[in-house]
């Protein structure tokens, strides 16, 4: 009973910090709300996770405290020195550190693997809203187009890192966290060019992620092969969620992804658009193993042949994306 009351209190503080933080244009007040958000999230981590994983909240606290201190110092000198470029870059790097993007992704991946599914959902959604909003505010205060190449270099490495993480694993938490890393590249790109599109994209992604993590938590799924032991109906549901996650047609997510790529292309960032298209195709090629695992008791020989058969479908997907790419020009 006491635990439920405490959880309700901390969740209320978490939501309040997000509401107040996204309602201000003051960098200092926004920083304070980010700190309030962190203070609310750490007890939630403590209550939701098993005793063997209790140390993760300390790791989260140390990373967030260090990045927050660095962020506050950078904000002070950013304002004092008439919006200095150096301190602008420092603020952007601390935002990336807080969200766990490349090159600060290892603490983020470690936490996601060791936390329960509910904590994972919160870390991948609610804990990113205020850093995303700060990134948007920084872009509004001072146009960051002159350092955009550095940002895009980081985002490209983000895509590459997520691809290699998902390539050689059957751990569901690692697959979902690598997918989250991939999606952060889309989110940060959209924040630079179109805030309303980012909001729609983020909300739909959060809903899909909530359903997925709730389902995995309900069945206590850890590895891909655990899906063998659930009913056929839920296998179908997981397959549909996979399609939504990858954002393939005919889902509304695919439409949002196409519009996003169009926005990037209209701003003459063709290479990042091309990389984002390729990341989607590779994600599908890797996750195309899901249907075989869901519906068949497969062995290595079957999976190997299944991949070979679907190479033609991969070529078909590449053709579709190149057609869309050509149409957007």
UniProtKB/TrEMBL annotation:
Keywords: Electron transport, Membrane, Mitochondrion, Mitochondrion inner membrane, NAD, Respiratory chain, Translocase, Transmembrane, Transmembrane helix, Transport, Ubiquinone. The gene is ND2. Core subunit of the mitochondrial membrane respiratory chain NADH dehydrogenase (Complex I) that is believed to belong to the minimal assembly required for catalysis. Complex I functions in the transfer of electrons from NADH to the respiratory chain. The immediate electron acceptor for the enzyme is believed to be ubiquinone. It is an enzyme of class 7 (translocase). GO terms for cellular component: mitochondrial inner membrane. Belongs to the complex I subunit 2 family. The chain crosses the membrane at residues 29-48, 144-164, 198-220, 232-256, 268-290, 311-328. It is found in: Mitochondrion inner membrane. It is a multi-pass membrane protein. This is NADH-ubiquinone oxidoreductase chain 2. Its EC number is 7.1.1.2. GO terms for biological process: mitochondrial electron transport, NADH to ubiquinone. One of its GO terms (molecular function) is NADH dehydrogenase (ubiquinone) activity. It comes from the Eukaryota.
């Amino acid at each position: 009973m006491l635990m439920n009351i405490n959880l309700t209190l901390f969740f209320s503080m978490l939501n309040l910090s997000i509401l107040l933080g996204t309602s201000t244009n003051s960098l200092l007040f926004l920083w304070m709300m980010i700190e309030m958000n962190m203070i609310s999230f750490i007890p939630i981590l403590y209550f939701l996770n098993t005793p063997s994983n209790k140390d993760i909240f300390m790791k989260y606290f140390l990373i967030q405290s260090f990045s927050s201190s660095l962020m506050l110092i950078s904000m002070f000198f950013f304002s004092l020195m008439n919006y200095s470029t150096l301190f602008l870059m420092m603020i952007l790097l601390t935002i990336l550190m807080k969200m766990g993007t490349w090159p600060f992704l290892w603490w983020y991946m470690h936490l996601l693997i060791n936390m329960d599914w509910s904590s994972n959902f919160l870390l991948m959604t609610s804990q990113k809203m205020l850093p995303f909003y700060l990134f948007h505010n920084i872009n509004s205060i001072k146009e960051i187009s002159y350092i955009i190449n550095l940002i895009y270099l980081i985002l490209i490495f983000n895509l590459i890192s997520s691809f290699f993480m998902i390539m050689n694993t059957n751990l569901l938490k690692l697959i979902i966290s690598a997918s989250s890393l991939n999606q952060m590249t889309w989110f940060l790109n959209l924040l630079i060019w179109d805030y309303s599109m980012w909001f729609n994209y983020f909300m739909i992604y959060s809903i899909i992620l909530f359903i997925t993590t709730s389902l995995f938590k309900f069945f206590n799924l850890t590895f891909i092969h655990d899906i063998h032991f659930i009913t056929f109906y839920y296998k179908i549901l997981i397959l549909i969620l996979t399609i939504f996650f990858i954002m393939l047609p005919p889902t509304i997510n695919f439409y949002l992804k196409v519009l996003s790529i169009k926005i990037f292309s209209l701003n003459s960032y063709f290479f990042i658009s091309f990389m984002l298209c390729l990341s989607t195709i590779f994600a599908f090629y890797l996750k195309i193993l899901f249907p075989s695992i869901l519906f068949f008791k497969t062995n290595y020989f079957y999976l190997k042949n299944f991949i070979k058969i679907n190479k033609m479908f991969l070529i078909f997907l590449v053709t579709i994306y190149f057609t869309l790419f050509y149409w957007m020009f």
